[in-house]
Amino acid sequence: MTLSEKVEQSFTERPDSELFGLNMAMHYGQGAAAAVIRATMAWNGVRGPFADLMFVGIRLLIDQTLENWTGVGALPWTWPVQEQIIDILHKTVFAFTTGYLIDRWIK
User: Can you tell which superkingdom this protein's organism belongs to (predicted)?
Assistant: First the structure.
């Protein structure tokens, strides 16, 4: 997801949300926590593209809860529509990539 965000930012010139170190810590920490949830889904037989689609919502929920709880984010419905779409696309990249890898790792 971080890679897709950096590529998008090179085109849109959108700045990082926070300081680089904090931004990376939040991305990787949230990603690791979310991956545990997706691994639990796979372990219990919830797999494939439909599970990945459900996981997009879980990833968005984790992100928005943490960002708003820590005060570094704004409520999503206050964002410009283009930023909402970009955020959902990045979370979708994360969800489908994580799901693909975890579904193959956990048998």
Answer: Eukaryota
Interval 25-80: pLDDT, tens: 888 888 999 999 999 999 999 999 999 999 999 999 999 998 889 888 888 889 99
Residues in CB range of 61: below 8 A, 6 or more apart: none
Long-range contacts of 12-21 (CB under 8 A, 24+ apart): 12/86, 14/83, 14/86, 17/67, 17/72, 17/73, 18/72
Which residue, among 61, 63, 60, 46, has the nearest Cα to 92 in the 3D structure? 60
Amino acid at 81: V
DSSP calls for 6-20: HHHHHHH-PPPSS-H
